[in-house]
């Protein structure tokens, strides 16, 4: 060795140590302990200070406990090509099911059928993920890919934040169930939003207010928007087939709250009259199968549902109160039915494959506001003659 060549030194860094799971003792170990024969491997392990760990509990703690050692190590020391090459074929085959198609040798990027650059006459082949998962993994490129390492470190963050524990998963499941049922929707938030974003109310006696575009705000008055009919909202796509119109009104004289949902089933092409479906009796909710996105357009049960064709919110309100049957016509006060109906709609159009299935509302729909608000908004944003 040249005298000018530096001496190589052994690294003093110690790798992180993970507790090893011990093998469960044989059935005869307890008998040997009772007779005083302590020469079993179990007793030797105890004398050497080894910790006995239940394997299933250890794995669960390793992958779910926020204090797991995985949260404090360099994840690339665990996920790398060297470790992959040491795994058995069976283990590799199981892990391949978790890898994306880009992780395999021979992957070729293709345009999806919904990509804007995909032409109608272009031959777009779907990605054969099942075929790729039986091939070889590009271990040299996969485990050093920034996207893979970022995902692995995100897993560490989620583990440290206790997001992978059974208790947190139960909370997530309950939260998603409440979202689907609409029980998390808080009415006062919608009312507060309307107060913060009221429609513009045109002022009289000024020539600048011909179009109704002033800074005067009034949430309770409809103003010039009263000239807009339900057919106008339908014609402009503000009310569509598949929407749920949620009715809610408090009758103070009888201390009664009546709520009822209706589904927009069809729209007449010339008159713009709306045909809706509602449940007979005082029940509020529509059948879950009727409001689900995948069941749009499915046949209905005439024994439990009633079809009505209406042309105004007041006409629909009167029909719903008749169906409910708890309030006599003599006790029905005059009021603005436009304020009693809110429009609930999917975030994306049916069949587009969006992520609106888990959202506030009926069958995965979101609240778009009351008909009163939508009418006023359309009036003040649209042109007027």
Helix and strand layout, with pairings?
Blueprint: H1 29-34, H2 41-47, H3 55-64, H4 81-86, H5 89-96, H6 129-132, H7 139-142, H8 146-160, H9 166-181, H10 187-196, H11 230-235, E1 244-251, E2 256-267, E3 274-279, H12 288-291, E4 305-310, H13 313-324, E5 341-345, E6 366-370, H14 371-381
Antiparallel strand pairs: 1-2, 1-5, 2-3, 3-4, 5-6
Region (Disordered): 1-48
Biased composition (Low complexity): 19-41
Pfam family, one: ASXH
Explained architecture:
The chain is an alpha+beta fold. The chain has a domain at 187-381. The chain has helices spanning 29-34, 41-47, 55-64, 81-86, 89-96, 129-132, 139-142, 146-160, 166-181, 187-196, 230-235, 288-291, 313-324, 371-381; strands spanning 244-251, 256-267, 274-279, 305-310, 341-345, 366-370. It has a six-stranded antiparallel beta sheet. The chain is elongated. Residues 202-217 and 351-361 have low confidence and may be disordered. Residues 55-196 form the ASX DEUBAD domain.
Number of strands: 6
Instruction: List the strand order in the largest sheet.
Output: 4-3-2-1-5-6
Number of helices: 14
Largest sheet: 6 strands, antiparallel
Structural class: alpha+beta
Distance between the termini: 96 Å
Q: Fraction of residues in helices? A: 25-40%
Order of helices and strands: HHHHHHHHHHHEEEHEHEEH
Rg? 33 Å
User: Runs with pLDDT <50, length 5+?
Assistant: 202-217, 351-361
Mean pLDDT: 77
**Outline type:** elongated
**Could you state the oligomeric state of the chains shown?**
single chain
The fraction of residues in strands falls at 5-15%
Pfam family, one: ASXH
InterPro entries: ASX_DEUBAD_dom (IPR028020)
Protein name: ASX DEUBAD domain-containing protein
